[in-house]
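User: My instructor asked us to take a sequence, write out its structure as tokens, and then describe one feature of it. I'm not sure where to start. Here is the sequence I was given:
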Amino acid sequence: MNKNSLESNLKELETIVSKMERGDMALEDSIKSYEKGMLLLKLCQDSLKEIEQKVLILSAENTLEQFKSANE
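Assistant: Let's start with the prediction itself. The structure tokens for your sequence are:
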């Protein structure tokens, strides 16, 4: 799974949740969707952590400094 933007990952995650909430998916499809949703959730959480770190740096020093994300 590639690392898309936070917005596209959230949109895809919302689509998966909506499909699963309808309750008309086969068990195997539900499991696959759940796995994909969990991966998307992890990507979203990582993106939010990175954004939070940027905001903290901006708040602390009033300038944006380069920092290494957890993935680097």
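For the description part of your assignment, you could build on this observation: The radius of gyration is 16 Å. Try explaining in your own words what that tells you about the chain.
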